## 1
Amino acid sequence: MAVAARAEETPLGTIGVEASAAGLTRVRLPGAGGAGARPGGDEPAAARAEAALEQLAEYASGQREIFDVEVDWSGVDETHRRVLETLREIAPFGATVTYGELGRRVGIADPREVGVLMARNPVPLVVPCHRVVAADGLGGFGGGLELKRRLLELEGVLPARLELGIV
């Protein structure tokens, strides 16, 4: 399978993507090697990668709330895919869901198991694992808690922090 990779600097940092002719296969968050993405791939894969990256850049700039990209789920097991697709359905832009609630919706009793699946999400942001929070706080995030906070601020879930400068 020919995969195309692209990367772009956004207000959130460098985001990278990989796509096949069937759809998006990976999103690399800032600090996770997005800058090292190599251009390449055949024309259909390259077109998918470019379209996904354009939408991610729009999201990072606050100009997009919904992604319209095909995801290539090859390599993602059935349970993991069901959890990720359920997340996309129940946690739209500006909303959150707890690990426990997401687990209940898909028949997984242990919220920690849901956390493990979120950590293995191959297409974060497009499948918004940053919107999954702990019952008592933010929980974790593969891009780090600072990025999770920034994403939730961007979506209006958390209030924007004041820039006070040197006090």
## 2
Amino acid sequence: MLKKKNFNEETEIPIFDEAIIYLRDGHWQFRMYLPTERKYVVRSLKTKNRAIAIAKGKDLFHDIHAEVRNGKKLFSMTAKEAVTAYLKFRQIDVDHNTIVVGRLTTITAHLNHFLDFIKRDTRLRDLEADSAIEYAGFRLGENASISTIANEQSTINALRKWLHLQGHMSFQSFIFRPLKMVDSRADDVRRQTFTDDELDTVLSAAEDYVDAAQERNEDYLHRQLTSYWININAHAGLRNGEARQMRWSDIEDVKDPKHYKEELLFIINIRPETSKVRSTRRVICQGGGFLAGLKTLLKPKGKDALVFSIDGVTEFAEKHLLKHFYAILEIAGIDYRGRNIVPYSLRHYMITNRLRAGLQYRQVAKMVGNSASEIEKTYHHLFDDERIESALAERKPIL
């Protein structure tokens, strides 16, 4: 209902007693108050003709009411603003230890791809359920894998559901074209991990890379941290976030020498707040000598100091880890780009190595904090060479 009762008939015309059109600088404008959003809708009718302005004003009035009935907001935020708000909401989950920092980083990366597709300045009110239907094609054009796209679409719809609950959008989920899911995990892992010979080459390259440092400065320490990261995680199979947040207080030596010969063992107590699955686990690993070497290098000031940190307080930044990790792989002659090898590949190596040593899926699962079924799904295809050997084995004569 318009509050104003008296109008200048030459320059002001009410529309259905709820809106008004008026002349401004010779052109007709439309104005209507929306109680649900406590704002005025102001639009230019782009005409100087009175009759045309009245007709356009009535059409716009009906269009606005239709959008309001369908749950659309006329003063909606942009896609970029929506993602920013959602990430702030998910940061609370990190603060409350509901998710780990690495998970938020992944969510951020997924939604940045979505913004690239949907365009950052797009208003939420202009989006429909099928607005992202061609998202998979867009990402396939950027060489994303099917499994990656599926994960991204899940994250996008989590955003969409939250926006719906907040009253910013009228539908709960986007419609995506069906993805032809191919279980390529084993092939991906086979490409992304190291063979024993490759890891030996990488470890040798890491030594040369550290020795090539010009002086014992911060860059030298970053090289050392990367070298120890490779050695320790090839034995421990930690997730990157677990390694980055590991403290010296989380580590114990194995006291009883009867259970091993020359290999130094160590125990890692993974805290739930650093674990992706938010659960505690206790792991006994080989490679204790590398931890001892790192401790001698860093001389941590206390048990609460971070293991992979120059000062014990600041986490080893991913950009420094990746810079030196890939430099080492270059020296080792590893095609890390073509095979998509990343620091997480050390975890793949450790799991594969333990399975090849004869451990059962459940035993390895306890070591790395996965379910036995997930380990079996991902890694059971990796041992075709052993299956071929079994198939070709000849029967031994009975003596």
## 3
Amino acid sequence: TDIWPMALSIALLNVITLFFYRFWGRTRVRQYLWARTTLFGDRFAYTGTGKEMFIGFLIVFFLIILPIIGLSTFVSFKWPNDMVVQIVYVYSLAAVTYFLFYMASYRALRYRLSRTNWRGIRGTQAGSSLVYALKAMGWLILTALSMGLTYPIQRVSLTGLKFNNAWFGDRRFTFDSAGRSAQLYGPFMRAWAGFIFKPLIIVIPVILLIALLFGLAKQDGRTEIPAAQANIMTALMVVMWVLVALGWLRTYARYKVREAAIMAPWVGFGSLRFTFNADHKSLFRLLFGNILLTFLTLGFARPIAQKRSARFIADHLRIQGEPDLETLAQNPESAPGLGEGLADAFDAGSI
């Protein structure tokens, strides 16, 4: 409950400042969450600032967003009726957007780790965001061509790239997935089939019922469907898609908890190992609750949703092993000087 006043004040300041306060608001939320997370009895600290994030956003806005807006305007006015040019441009813009999104997510992780302190030690994310984005784009194309069947391998590849380049102090995380990707395919194939076939259990009866109502409305030779029956059909369509969405969300939650449970032990940090144990019902409640909180409040309750997500992870993630912390030293590499402007533009950061 103590985060509600903060969320309300951030929402009010966002409105007053036309949402320019969001950089400082996001910093306040991170400081709150980090300070309430402990490891071996010591709290984390977030040292990023709203100013860093604001300056990073300004640089991205003038160097990337503004030129894209200008180019889009030029193409629209130069070739308004040329569908080939318009289609090529739209698809090219989509590819660039996906590429920038993946790059932004990697750079955002680097910034957050560099601003995360524990016992005076900070983290860092090595590696190239460009390489990550290129690999992510390659996997995106391959997964689309395979109708999603390469998704587990994609997840293992990209997750490994992140963890194997993640450091805390002078010690690197590891991600040992060698020969283990096949473990994901059992849960994934059940989810893949669920996404495709489970909605049919809802869609087919509803479509048949709507067709029956339509036939009854037309049997007297009417040219228009009566308002009452039209409203019923509309309501049925809305209910159908709500139920389908809930079914997809449940299937997604069932797969994600299994994926996390399988992949968590592959992560290592020195002698420490990790496990994750949660049931899909609890994740479904978390996701559904966060969706309601975010959309029903027009995003103003997002800090509460973020707190719920952080608590869920903390409650279900377990660390095993004896920590060798006496030899843990600061990473000699300098931290990035700017905030996650690109990530803010694409909303690529989870928190």
## 4
Amino acid sequence: MPGDAPRLIAGSRPAPGAYDADIVILCLERPAETCAAIRSALAQRGGVFHVSVLDQNSSLETIRALTTAFANAPRFALYRAAQNLGVGGGRNFLGACGHGRIIVGLDNDAVFHDPWTVAGALKIFLRRPELGALGFNILSADGAAPDLASWGYPRLLQPKFREKFDTTTFVGAGHAIRRATWQAVGGYDPSLFFTWEEYDFCLAAISRQWRIAYDGSLAVRHSGAAMARIGWDGTRMTAYVRNRLLISRKWGLSWGALAPRICAYALRGAVNGCLPATLTGIAQAWRAKTPRGRPMPKAMRAYVSAHETRHRGSWFDRLRLEVLSKVGKGFFFEKKKQKTFFTLGRACVSATGPISKKFLRRFFQKAASFFAIASG
């Protein structure tokens, strides 16, 4: 192991022999929320579970709080990394530390809704041998309603938040992965670091004939701690755009085929007031020079179409739900935002040479109609 690999600072690694699940939690500061998440994990019943926590270089005060609270906890391990490994890298490390039949992920600002959530997930995996990963219902902190900020599925499915359906991804705040699927895929792509890592993992699983599901009867309550949120006008938006474009490259799309998606992202950035961060994400994806991968197999395309694309509705539904709902009615009449929109137009002109006003107007209209591609 490299010298700077995370090290065990409290508790013990899982003992040899079979057990049911590894519950894994990543943390960075937020000691109060992290302690609540760990207590929730340790309180799970209905099986043999091991709880593993990776601290991504928090302060000494936070480390002291965690080690003091859980020094004597059974079936518990606390590791500390010298640097932030990212979501994918951190989960990869914790996944490799255990050998439970399933790997259950919990955000450190979330708690299980009841003590039988992990046991419920185990039963579902036993009933469905083809199931590779399972998304939980992410509720608000009081458990009364879904946490809409954490809804990772087509918006038309939101009314079904308490139901069950097959899908193409899961939300990291609460989920479970079959270890056999984890091993087949090879874990997350650590280069994505943050955002879209779950979708990337699920696409790789789907290509290997695994299915992904959502079960609204299994829930976590998500506090969404303020200091955990990275604004959509900064790092989060840049990573969101960069990673989604790189994932598309993995599945065979050329840069020419990605042009509508890129335009849609630029439009989305302009609408939401974070155009510079969006353009940075596009530039980073281009500079990454990710080689074009193989196209999705026919069966995989059919699965994605059936369990994702058709639930996004018509282009009008997508425009209404995923664009217009994000801005005020007077967006195109607000001088500040109107200026941002025209700045985008000037950027396109300077990048591609003289373009007629008529062509540019049609160009943006076409980009808007493709917005749904960018939102998926």
